[in-house]
């Protein structure tokens, strides 16, 4: 049963309704891919908004606080902040190495000991950057896959529909426009739906990847800044140890009630 005739919208509905089973299956697949992509887009917009807002809040806390131990505890409330995760990874590694740093003998060369120890902190932060990047990229391959494959899936539906139309023409023994046009127009709907699914997917995939690249730059900048703070503290500690003759605990590890 066909839908009643009407405007362009009814015409498209008629073409979909009268399409063959294979074309309908292709259209159903494309609509499902499109809906999944729009779901990913909405989720990602919310995720990026929370992550960027919390990272801005964390960076303000980082600039204002002298006590990194307290900042480490407070950063637990900012689970979506990518900067907080980089800081927590670096600070946790620094905490694990603090006792080792305190026992480094000046005769063995404290600066070399600092470079070796801080390189592990740097690696810990690089690992956190990689994990946060993967978290932000999650489900984005669906957009890329849809953008790359949806037009071809739609084209497959179109080719199949045209083949079916020519088969019907052969059975009827007529090839006038009134016979050919309806079948071909129904088949071309699959290509249109494929493009409708692919174009937004490609646009939003590129948009989110550009935002992730900007966030990566922000994370690397922050990691470099925090690394500089730790190295400066090591130099201060080495100078104090040389002057007093006894190792001094790193100030960034001190905590207050």
From TrEMBL:
Residues 115-219 form the MotA/TolQ/ExbB proton channel domain. It is a multi-pass membrane protein. The keyword NAD does not apply. InterPro entries: ExbB/TolQ_transport, MotA_ExbB_proton_chnl, Tol-Pal_TolQ. It is found in: Cell membrane; Membrane. GO terms for cellular component: plasma membrane. It comes from the Bacteria. The chain crosses the membrane at residues 25-45, 139-163, 187-209. Its main location: membrane. GO terms for biological process: bacteriocin transport; cell division; protein import. Keywords: Cell cycle, Cell division, Cell inner membrane, Cell membrane, Membrane, Protein transport, Transmembrane, Transmembrane helix, Transport. Belongs to the exbB/tolQ family. This is Protein TolQ. It comes from Desulfacinum infernum. The gene is tolQ.
């Amino acid at each position: 049963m066909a839908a009643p005739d009407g405007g362009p919208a009814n015409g498209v509905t008629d073409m979909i309704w009268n399409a063959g089973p294979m074309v309908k299956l292709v259209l159903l697949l494309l609509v499902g891919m499109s809906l999944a992509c729009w779901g990913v887009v909405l989720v990602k917009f919310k995720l990026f908004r929370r992550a960027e807002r919390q990272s801005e809040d964390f960076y303000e806390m980082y600039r204002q606080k002298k006590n990194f131990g307290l900042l480490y505890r407070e950063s637990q409330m900012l689970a979506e902040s990518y900067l907080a995760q980089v800081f927590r990874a670096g600070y946790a590694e620094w905490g694990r190495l603090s006792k080792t740093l305190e026992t480094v003998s000046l005769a063995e060369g404290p600066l070399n000991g600092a470079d070796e120890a801080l390189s592990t902190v740097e690696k810990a932060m690089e690992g956190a950057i990689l994990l946060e990047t993967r978290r932000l990229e999650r489900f984005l391959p669906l957009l890329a896959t849809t953008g790359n494959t949806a037009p071809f899936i739609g084209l497959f539906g179109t080719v199949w529909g045209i083949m079916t139309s020519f088969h019907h023409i052969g059975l009827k023994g007529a090839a006038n426009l009134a016979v050919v046009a309806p079948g071909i127009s129904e088949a071309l709907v699959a290509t249109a739906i494929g493009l409708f699914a692919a174009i937004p997917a490609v646009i939003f995939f590129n948009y989110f990847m550009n935002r992730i690249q900007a966030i990566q730059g922000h994370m690397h900048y922050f990691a470099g800044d925090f690394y500089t703070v730790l190295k400066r503290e090591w130099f201060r500690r080495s100078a104090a140890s040389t002057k007093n003759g006894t190792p001094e605990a790193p100030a960034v590890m001190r905590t207050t009630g």
